[in-house]
């Protein structure tokens, strides 16, 4: 790392933010925030797929005046990205959700608050503001879910993100091994881990203990906060194996604003989401954290865009670490890209300044890559700027793409 006095804070890329997060957080917490599931094949595949796609630059085009603005749901936003929902962001930093939401607002992009936040949704709305989206998992008691959604609506959240890829809790053996739980509890297994990370112990844990008490899921109904969350993280996702498209249809009736279905992985499901009058889908394998045999969303993207691109907004995530990654997705027809771990790592590294830095890194890289491929705007990107010939099975995905 370089000097801390310049505005890079010594973080030159998203890997630097990840390294800083790893040093600051107890190991159990860092692994919870960073790892995948099972053998982490899906997580690696996300990167392999993105790296195997090449850009096909055009040259001798005047790219001296550039903009990376996009219009999403009729609103102009300054960057083609969205901060993805990441549960427990408030464990990365004290009230990290507020810090991250403020950074998103400063960069002119939407922030998605996860149901599994440590900070109450109303406080995020009051203290950060900006273009706020609310993510939730449907609880088995749907009435309770509908109540939380009504709170989000009343607090001014502009979009509802229904995550549908986790009907049962994913297999994450490392959480069990690390003794990682929410509410966070000191156990024989993690006490050394926490004591050897005093910045986190004093800066995050102690501050909660002095204010709201043991960090917990503050958006859960009070009566269930302890009961549901007392399970090890590996099993604590309040999963509901009975959700169906009927739930989407019901939400469509309940929710007056934009409705987004997150965790679509099959073009046919994207069509069903459109049939339910959803406004958008997030093509996602949850950053490789749920089904380890999941395909990389970037590879499914062209088929999803072909199937529903004219009917709804297509957002993609999972593994996007560089401006080149974002440009590839946009060129393949995505309307925007969600970023999960990188802004979270930024928050863990240096609170709001770290989150701002995370987004600034993408902003600078996107701007640079746009110029390097010969485009002044995101709208100018097309499949002709993408070369899928190096991708396994690329020939079936490469419709409309540049060929070598
Ligand atoms: C620590 C962590 C917590 C997450 N929590 C949620 C969540 O509560 N709800 C959800 O829909 N997705 C959740 N995700 C998935 C992200 O929204 C997003 O799909 C994923 O992180 C994108 O991949 P990336 O991290 O490679 O950018 C979480 C991801 C991480 C890393």
Q: Which structural class matches the secondary elements?
A: alpha/beta
The CA-CA distance between the termini, in Å, is 38 Å
H/E element sequence: HHHEEEEHHEHEHEHHHHHHEHEHEHEHEH
- What is the helix tally? 18
Query: What value does the Rg take, in angstroms?
Result: 20 Å
Describe the biggest sheet?
8 strands, parallel
Strand content: 5-15%
- Which whole number gives the mean pLDDT? 92
If strands are numbered along the chain, what order do they take across the biggest sheet? 4-11-10-9-8-7-6-5
Strand tally: 12
Low-pLDDT regions: 232-237
Bound molecules: flavin mononucleotide
Principal-axis shape equals: globular
Helix content: 40-55%
Structure characterization notes:
The chain has helices spanning 14-24, 27-34, 41-52, 89-92, 96-106, 121-127, 142-154, 173-178, 191-195, 198-210, 222-229, 233-236, 245-254, 267-275, 297-308, 323-331, 341-372, 394-397, and strands at residues 54-55, 70-72, 75-77, 81-83, 111-114, 132-136, 159-163, 258-264, 280-283, 313-316, 336-339, 386-387. With 404 residues, the chain is of the alpha/beta class. The longest helix has 32 residues, at 341-372. Residues 232-237 have low confidence and may be disordered. Flavin mononucleotide is lined by residues 33, 84-87, 114, 116, 135, 163, 262, 284, 286-287, 289, 317-320, 338-341, 344.
